[in-house]
């Protein structure tokens, strides 16, 4: 661990010299921790209390078990840092021990009649080596009935509880023995097998997607203006069924009809999700009363933990003493005083003197646009965002627009001056964020809508002059690349920065800027099965690195190895739609009139295509060269592709269209390949 303390002291536990220096300079701190260690160990009742608290998952307050488990004050310090939520110092680097993944695995989903029956199975599953047992109540499953139907059927009553069981083993023989024992222990009645234990990796992935989609499923249906709240608690396994039932009774008492419960059953850990409005005193009072009753239920009646995984934060800070008691909280406060005497690190978190702190600084989700209003700001989209390291992620773009009306006038003015660059200009609008968004929000579509609002004619202008636009872009990149080779290193970046003062829209040169692409041409081997390949604008404008082949060439090689001949329309680099080998783009893109989904197939109908079909002259005669005025294309059992070619501009991009801007021909048994979009891949045209 590499950590930084409030006074600027640094400690790298992997470095002997750093450890020696820290022990010398922080003698008082380490002695203070040693004194606390000895004081706690000498108090039998406090020691027993700490051990009792950590019999379950527990992130409420500090990890006082470090005072019992470790003798070295440095070890105590590093373990106190875990879960301290930035109140004791900053962890800059952390090394983790990993465990091996067993080679064989099986997963199954079972629905039990009630919580008592389901929870009674947990010790049995634990004894048979189950690695994960995920509990889901009936409301949770009702939120994902569409996904559930893809793996099996179940009749969900109000009290039904499901268990998703995951088990692995070092050998197939051992796995089969474990599964046999588990199945033998299941009840013979009041049990529905939604999906029996399976080793099929795709089915397993789908089962876990059902579980992972529960939290956002509530967010997807929340009323406008409400906030999604998730809490996590833990009960002893002997109290889990009763605790779950009591929690659901609280939902009913406070009219949280949308609330769901799911969790990690092996640990007695439950997450519950509900939505709440905070815009009126009555709503805030309702939330306060509910939280007070949750605290009484978990910490009072069942002696569980109020925060099993998520940390104390601000919401549970007023209730720290309810779980730990004043003596243990006093030890935590002395730890805080030792490490952060000025209380400058994350004030108000974990320790908060305000008994109503959970009602202060409440986060609201005001409406911005129907395309993004369902966003719950979970951040799942961020790893997919190309601009995450440049400006903002999709979550941050949405959050910024939501907070804008709440800021002071001078802050609003600053954001409004910068939002064009932060929100619009630097968004790649690829739609990749939607691939990992649990509520299917495409922030790129929202950004395109904003661009269309600000520049309503930009799309048509680019579409009508697409060939020229691409030539200028490629030429500019090539000239810049050439100039970077012959001019001193700092001249070109400095020159473009200076030029931007006069012409702000001029891009600034940087070293990583690629050169212009070479025209895409067909260089495929010949096969009976053929594929139409439509390289995207990115690959028609930006060239590959000197040590890498162009992506169209790579795609062609891969398809050839798979036994497909790759057909690229003639002059595709200079036009978006080619009419029988012509070299210019059509003047008006085809307009998508309607779209639908039926029997697992995505369909679109395009009109206005006429004879401007995507058929180069060398396409075999099996393809009709005269496309009808209206053509329907359908992709079989594949996720919808997002075609972001420039022809779409900002208007012609339906989110569920496999080939939204291409006038299709009457083809049969052919495929169209796209290397740009939500799900890069292919779709079968029929």
General description of the model:
It is a single chain. With 686 residues, this protein is of the alpha+beta class. The strands form four sheets. Strands 7-4-6-5-9-10-8 form a seven-stranded antiparallel β-sheet, sandwiched between helices. Strand 16 (670-674) and strand 17 form a beta hairpin. Mean pLDDT is 81; it is low at 575-686.
Radius of gyration: 30 Å
DSSP strand content: 15-25%
User: What level of helicity do the residues show?
Assistant: 25-40%
- What is the mean pLDDT? 81
How many separate helices?
A: 24
Shape annotation: globular
First-to-last CA distance = 57 Å
| Strand-pairing-aware structural class | alpha+beta
Residue stretches low in confidence (pLDDT < 50, at least 5 long) are 575-686
Please summarize the sheet with the most strands: 7 strands, antiparallel
Reading side by side through the largest sheet, how are the strands ordered? 7-4-6-5-9-10-8
How many strands in all?
17
